[in-house]
Amino acid sequence: MTRGRFVALEGGEGAGKSTQARLLADALSQRGIAVVLTREPGGTPLAEQIRSILLSQDEGPDLRTEALLFAAARADHVARLIEPALSVGKWVICDRFVDSSRAYQGGGGGLPDEDILALHRIGSAGLLPDLTLLIAVDPEVAEARTAARDAGSSDRIAGRDAGYHARVAQAFDTFASQEPHRFARIDGNGSPEQTHAAIMAAVDQMQAKRA
Ligand code: TYD
User: Fold this and answer.
1) pTM for this one?
2) Domain range spanning residue 12?
3) Which of 45, 46, 130, 193 is spaced 20 to 30 Å from 177 by Cα?
4) 14 pLDDT above the threshold of 90
5) How many Cβ atoms sit within 10 Å of the Cβ of residue 113?
6) Is there a domain that residue 1 lies in?
């Protein structure tokens, strides 16, 4: 059995990842590919419970505990959903993965990248996606989209200040430059259809390289 492909979508708030994850999963299904569409934090019952702790409006965990909880949620997600699906040949489309921890808890929060990667090695055997789609949007576009979506009630992490989110965006950009074999940069400023077309082109390019 050929192992399935693992594709993650990454980016800041309001990049349109969730819409694009759905469009990608639908397009692959239409090609006859078995697809699992999932998200982080979450994707399994245990990880969804951790998600509600992480995103609640309460004071919440401190930075290190937060990083450990994201890694724990991911470990369960990888062990119980992602690896089993890949091993039977299904494709996994994941709305955020470890690069979100590197960008938010690392870039935004200030934890060293090697510590985030160490947690990922311990929790998830260092599993990395075959392709990570970094959807980049201009800050004004992101702001307009999140304002329309959240109507003033963003979660604990999305509600952090502009400086935090600027560091997150900068970190994602750095990862994409440092690891071009693993990332595809996608312009998310246009219509959903335009962004979807760019994503399909990146997925086809990955397949062509690996065929
Ligand atoms: P979600 O509602 O899924 O937001 P979005 O639609 O922007 O993806 O909430 C996920 C939040 O958790 C988001 O603010 C990013 C944050 N996050 C981290 O800080 N670290 C992580 O490892 C992950 C997966 C998410």
Assistant:
1) 0.96
2) 6-210
3) 193
4) no
5) 16
6) no
